[in-house]
Every structure is written in structure tokens, then in C-alpha cells.
Amino acid sequence: MADQLAGLADDRALLGRTSTAERVSDILRSRIADGYFPPGTRLSEDSIGGALSVSRNTLREAFRLLTHERLLVHELNRGVFVRVLTVEDVEDIYRTRRLVECAVVRGLAEPPYALRQLDTAVVEGQRAAAENDWKAVGTANIHFHGGLVALAHSARTDELMRSVFAELRLAFHLVDDPERLHEPYLQRNRQILRALEAGDRAGAERLLAVYLDDSLDRVVDAYRRRVGADGPSPG
After folding, report:
1. CA–CA separation, 98 vs 157, rounded Å?
2. What stretches of 142-212 adopt beta strand conformation (E)?
């Protein structure tokens, strides 16, 4: 046991590096989700490392983590880029969403449910729409669906879907008309929330399933038009 503990003590330095890399990846993930680094952007190690005052090794580890989450792609002799999703990627994201989100709603216990996060997201979306901030409406929409997933009280499911939602934002950033994409779902989010408030799990699941199918059609249609116009990009 003493030898094992000594070995663990030797690994203490790794904890600092890992936690720093994870914090850097959190920052970059948020910036990517917010569109600060749009899809196809090449990420400069020197510039980002200098801005965050982190070492090249730490930054590369953060890049590795985000590549594992499918947010970045490394191209040999070219560098690291924010990933550009294919239509097949978008379809797979929605397939995953349907499997997970509908299963969460279907598997809910007896009401009442902890719906504060959903209610807050609905209000957030309404406020953003009133200010004509459709990017913020998209963010509120992601928060709503994150709140749905959180009803499962599963840290693993939350972590899985955090990556899925981050990938989804990559597709949102390629949509030319975010109002057309997001506006219809303000009302649909309210409908799902009201169904859950009434304890109607089956009704909420039906609304959610149709919602996701319609959203997929809208995103794919907008995505095909944008990518087709711009041509292929890195990733």
C-alpha cells in the first residue's frame, strides 16, 4: 500500500494539468457554442494560448478533449479547426436527441416535476424574441432541452447531451435565417412545459417527438442550402 500511495503522490502534478486543460476546454466550448469561433475557423495555438496564458501542452490537451467531443478536427499539416458538420452529422444528432429526450420524458416518475429550469428557459426565449435576438433564442432553446434531460437526474446523461447540444450549435451557426429556425419552437416549448405541469407525460412526449422531427427538417433544409452555397469547408 505504501508503494501505491507513493505512486499516487507522483501523479499529483497531473491533476493540475488536467484540471487546467478541462477549464480551457470549457472556455473554448462556450466560445464555439456562442459563435465566437465559427465552423471552419482555424484555431491558432499561439494566439489562444497567449490570450489564456496557458502552455502549449495544456492547450493541446484541451484541443484533444474537444476533438473527442467532435467539436474540433485536426488536419495533418494544417492545424486544428472548428468542425463543420455534414448533413449526416445533423441527422445523427437529432436521432440521438430523439432517443434520449423522449426516453427521459417517458421514464419520468409521478408528478409533480421540478420544472423551474424549463420555465426559466421559456421566459428567457420569450425575452430574447421580444428583443429580436434570435441567437439568444437558440441559446434559450438549448437550455430548455438541457432542462428536459436534467429531469432524468443522471450525470452521465447530462454529460452526453452537453456534447450533443454543443455539436448542434455548430449547425445552428450555419443557418442564414435564425428567426425562421427558432421562432416556431417558442410556442412548442411552452406546450411541452404545460403538458408536464399537468402531469401528462405521454402528451409531452408526443409533442417533443413531433417537435424534434420538424426541427430536423428545418435545420437540414437550411443547412443544405447554406453548405451548398458556400462549398465544402474543413472538417
Report:
1. 13
2. none
Whether the model clears a pTM of 0.85, i.e. scores above it, the answer is no
Domain boundary among 67, 82, 97: 82
Give the pLDDT of residue 228.
57
pLDDT mean for each 10 residues of the chain (235 residues): 44 56 89 86 90 90 94 93 93 97 97 96 96 92 96 95 91 86 93 97 97 93 70 45
Name the residue range of residue 74's domain.
Answer: 2-82
Cell reading at 117: 429550469
Alpha-carbon distance 10 to 162, whole Å?
33
Q: Show Cβ contacts of residue 27 under 8 Å, excluding neighbours closer than 6 positions.
A: 52
Of 216, 229, 234, give the one whose Cα is nearest residue 87.
Answer: 216
Q: Which three cell numbers stand for residue 16?
A: 493540475
Q: Is residue 235 part of a domain?
A: no
| 68 and 125 together in one domain | no
> 136: which residues sit within 8 A by CB, 6+ positions away?
124, 128
202, amino acid identity: A
Q: Which of 49, 82, 115 is the last residue of a domain?
A: 82
